Amino acid sequence: MRSTYLPCPEGRLHVYSAGEHGPPVLLLSGAGVDNAILSWRHLIPALAPRHRVLALDWPKQGRSRPWTGRATHERMLRCISQVLDHFQLGSASLAGLSQGGALALAYAIDHPKRVDRLVALAPAGILSFPPGVHQALWLTAKLPLLNRTLPGLMFRSRAGVARFAEQALFAGPVPDLAEIVDEIVEEVGHGGAGSSDWQNASIGPLRMRVDLRPRLHRITAPTLLIQGDRDRGVSHERTRAAAALIPGARLEILEGNGHWVNRQSPGRVNELIAAFLNPMDGVDPLG
Q1: Cys-Cys link to 97, which of 121, 125, 176, 264 (CB 3.0-4.6 A)?
Q2: pTM score, two decimals?
Q3: Higher pLDDT residue, 160 or 83?
Q4: What's the rounded Cα separation, in Å, for the pair 214 and 220?
Q5: Burial classification of residue 3, based on how many CB atoms lie within 10 Å of its CB (0-12 exposed, 13-18 middle, 19 or more buried)
């Protein structure tokens, strides 16, 4: 893989690239202690033989440091445009996990001509919470003690990181759990732990500030949603309801999987995404 740094007023934006030929695809990772390699370590080499693959480190993640200012929803969407523009791509397919899934959906709504095909894994941006729960989450997002300090204490030890991964991210055996924990520990060492600027800004005092559901019907790109049936962060019922709002969208539920399906079941996820991005192969894993 190659690294490219895009200079920005706030800092530098880092992008991995692999593959020389074929339709371009941009991979968008999740929030918190994720980064481009953590999410897409297995998918990048699976796609590179037939695609020009780009994987973005969001601001304040991975190698996109230092970064000053807040990485808001609007700023993150501009990051996608910056990457496409820098690599002189009029359009590309997008694949995003969680936070990255929400931003992929939002970008397809706002810039339909720049999105060829769309994959969203356990996407955020389609959630709402009952009164009381919502206000508790809003308070957590507002107070650094709750969204930075306490997570930092929990992630101080490797054992704490392992417990978090097993309980919050996965719902069954993971082939390379030890390596994942090591990668998370390294990311925490560079950037700390806690929720992202996007997560904190997406929830308002009374309702979600980022709620894509009323606009999902505007997506025109062929869309695949992938969801674990035991996801504690994004329920498969929410994703199923969102899929019904996107014209022609297809949904794949992976049994026994949690939130991080691309690391718990990388072989199956790679197969689904590769087949979806190459429909001319005549192999339809969803049909």
Answers
A1: 121
A2: 0.94
A3: 83
A4: 15
A5: exposed
